[in-house]
């Protein structure tokens, strides 16, 4: 099969039964810069299904044509979706889209015609709208089940390989940002299994769907505002970096790259750590490592300080911990307050010297088992800036420690 024929085939497979390639974008991103030939679309084609192509298939296809693939990473929530249900043309005359375009023209100097062209090609994704919804019958939170998904041999071994392949970069980042290599390795391992689990949602479609058609939930107004801001930052980033808005793939929530940065974080914290003149969180582990380190540093990481302390497993300590576990991710108490109430720390530390240290209690429930607790310090709080979940923060830390132990 010739290269043009292969590209035409992939364009059709990716989107809908009838596509016309955008000639202006063909040379840069022939696979993802496509628009529906609406003159040939009947009413029953309004809602369509398109395959979510695997990164390996797409990279192989583009590689046959000598084109460097620009594929991005998947989201934090693990999903197995092979088809995406879409509605093309929805944002061509959508009232929310028109208002957004007005804002981007007035506030950021975009050309109206360019924005209108982009949104005429963006699609509403029913799949994205479904995945962003909370479970209809939420199950009980289980720390043990959550932890077992990430701290297991496959991910630990992948972490060892990643650390070995990027040893010097991790050492440099630790020296520059003060963040241990193990913590950076833990975050990237949880986020994308070191770039392996990378997702296939077109970011423009995901963010448009969530900015203009967020599902009807109690927090819809706040979430709509959040994703409108992310969409604005995504378009600004594309303009600043001269990136084709249709080329970027990511999670169903719009997270991008090996470390899964949302567009706002991408603009604020990402760094060109390999010094090649541009930031590429999609294909450069070096840029990803530096960007994670910088993110944590700028959120207040304390070099050389612990992430958590263990609590003694006696009834008195557990009772104090249960009473102090208020779900807040920032340190609201001092260690003195807890120890005076009867909590004992199961760590070789000078409790008197650490008495004024700000701490929090992270509760880790598992159904039908006693709830576990740990004392979180400032660095634990910083990890929750990446993801607010206590489960996430502790898993990142423990995965990094498990990989470090396997490296020994």
UniProtKB/TrEMBL annotation:
Residues in Transglycosylase SLT domain copies: 94-400
A biological process from GO: peptidoglycan catabolic process
Record keywords, A-Z: Glycosidase, Hydrolase
Active site: 191
Superkingdom of origin: Bacteria
Protein's recorded name: Membrane-bound lytic murein transglycosylase B
InterPro entries: Lysozyme-like_dom_sf, Lytic_transglycosylase_MltB, MltB-like, SLT_2
E.C. designation(s): 3.2.1.-
MF annotations from Gene Ontology: hydrolase activity, acting on glycosyl bonds; peptidoglycan lytic transglycosylase activity
Species of provenance: Cupriavidus metallidurans (strain ATCC 43123 / DSM 2839 / NBRC 102507 / CH34)
One Pfam family from the record: SLT_2
Keyword presence, Hydrolase: yes
Enzyme's top EC category: hydrolase
Bilayer-crossing regions: none
Gene of this entry: mltB
């Amino acid at each position: 099969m010739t290269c043009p024929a292969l590209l035409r085939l992939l364009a059709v497979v990716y989107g809908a039964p009838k596509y016309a390639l955008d000639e202006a974008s063909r040379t840069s991103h022939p696979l993802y810069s496509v628009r529906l030939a609406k003159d040939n679309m009947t009413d029953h084609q309004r809602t369509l299904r398109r395959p979510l192509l695997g990164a390996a298939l797409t990279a192989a296809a583009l590689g046959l044509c000598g084109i460097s693939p620009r594929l991005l990473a998947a989201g934090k929530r693990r999903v197995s979706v092979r088809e995406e249900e879409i509605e093309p043309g929805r944002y061509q005359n959508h009232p929310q889209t028109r208002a957004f375009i007005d804002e981007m023209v007035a506030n950021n100097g975009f050309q109206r015609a360019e924005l209108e062209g982009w949104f005429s090609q963006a699609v509403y994704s029913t799949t994205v709208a479904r995945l962003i919804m909370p479970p209809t019958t939420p199950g009980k939170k289980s720390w043990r089940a959550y932890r077992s998904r990430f701290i297991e041999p496959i991910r630990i071994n992948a972490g060892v390989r990643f650390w070995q392949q990027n040893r010097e970069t991790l050492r440099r980042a630790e020296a520059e940002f003060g963040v241990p290599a193990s913590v950076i390795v833990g975050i990237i391992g949880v986020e994308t299994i070191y770039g392996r689990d990378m997702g296939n949602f077109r970011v423009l479609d995901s963010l448009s769907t969530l900015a203009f058609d967020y599902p009807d939930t109690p927090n819809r107004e706040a979430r709509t505002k959040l994703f409108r801001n992310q969409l604005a930052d995504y378009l600004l980033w594309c303009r600043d970096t001269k990136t084709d808005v249709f080329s970027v793939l990511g999670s169903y929530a719009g997270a991008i790259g090996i470390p899964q940065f949302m567009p706002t974080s991408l603009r604020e914290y990402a760094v060109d750590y390999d010094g090649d003149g541009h930031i590429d969180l999609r294909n450069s582990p070096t840029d990803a490592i530096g960007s994670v380190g910088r993110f944590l540093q700028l959120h207040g990481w304390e070099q050389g300080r612990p992430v958590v302390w263990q609590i003694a497993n006696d009834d008195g300590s557990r009772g104090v911990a249960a009473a102090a576990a208020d779900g807040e991710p920032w340190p609201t108490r001092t260690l003195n307050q807890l120890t005076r109430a009867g909590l004992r720390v199961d760590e070789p530390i000078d409790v008197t010297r650490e008495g004024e240290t700000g701490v929090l209690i992270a509760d880790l429930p598992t159904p039908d088992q006693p709830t576990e607790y740990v004392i979180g310090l400032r660095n634990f709080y910083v990890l929750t800036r990446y993801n607010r979940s206590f489960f996430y923060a502790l898993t990142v830390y423990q995965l990094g420690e498990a990989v470090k132990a396997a490296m020994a």
